[in-house]
Amino acid sequence: MGKFTGPIIGIVLIILGMVAYGSLFTVDERQQAIVMQFGEPKRVIPEPGLAWKMPLIQNVQYYENRVLNLDPPAENILLSDQKRLIVDAFARYKITDPLLFFQTVRTENVARQRLGGIINGRLRQVLGNETLTAVLSDERIRILASIRENVDRETQRFGIALVDVRIRRADLPDETRESVYDRMRSEREREAAEFRAQGFEQSQRITSAADREATVIAAEATRESEILRGQGEGLRTEILNGAYGQDPDFFNFYRSMQAYTQALDSTSTFMVLSPDSEFFSFFNQTVNPNLP
């Protein structure tokens, strides 16, 4: 009996080792697992580490615990302004409920197909109510938020949480791109013409205001100069009247000399007058020899 004890113990240890090897399994930190028995889920292992299962009758189904990328095919979408747009979107998602994920889609390939269909469907739904101008402007932030909210609401029933969805590219089809560019160019040219017209109008207003101000300043200067001229003429007349009152003969002589100076200023001046004219009265006077 004793001679069989060693081999028996060895066999038992081997069997126990095989059972232990078949019962233990490791869950990587990048994974989460479901223990299956005859095709039915029995237990979810959400955390990494060493776990156990019943050998032979149970197996393990692993799922990713990382954020996954999805790049669905580009979609040709008709916008609300009847413009067509080729939209290339991508999404990032994570399996948050492995049991629900297994019960609804089972495999990641099926999940990717379902998720791609949902994303393209929501793109058509949301963008179908938007114009091309809105999609190409800052409004796209609001549009993407609406798409993300709609997609996340649908993917939750698969045990999937949508992390993000973005539009990588949005291109016009070749047959409509040139016409849209021409229309955009025409709109920009119209806006530029409006800006130029507004600038010209403002320039005219500024010029008119400056002209009015210049006219007012010139009129004011003319008025002041006329006042000063009148004051000067009045002062001159007053001085001349005073001189006339003091010595009438000298005043008449002085005025005659001024008249001679003005009349005979040019060498080409010809005057036809009688020698006895009063104008030449001072020329005809005899000089008193007794005067010094």
From TrEMBL:
Membrane topology designation: Single-pass membrane protein
Record Pfam families: Band_7 (PF01145)
Keywords assigned by UniProt, alphabetized: Hydrolase, Membrane, Protease, Transmembrane, Transmembrane helix
Gene Ontology CC: membrane
CDD domains listed in its UniProt record: SPFH_HflC
GO MF terms held by the record: peptidase activity
Transmembrane spans: 6-27
Domain Band residue range list: 22-184
GO biological process: proteolysis
InterPro entries referenced in this protein's UniProt entry, alphabetically: Band_7 (IPR001107), Band_7/SPFH_dom_sf (IPR036013), HflC (IPR010200)
Compartments reported by the entry: Membrane
Family from the record: Belongs to the band 7/mec-2 family. HflC subfamily.
Functional note: HflC and HflK could regulate a protease.
Annotated protein name in UniProt: Protein HflC
UniProt organism field: Pelagibius litoralis
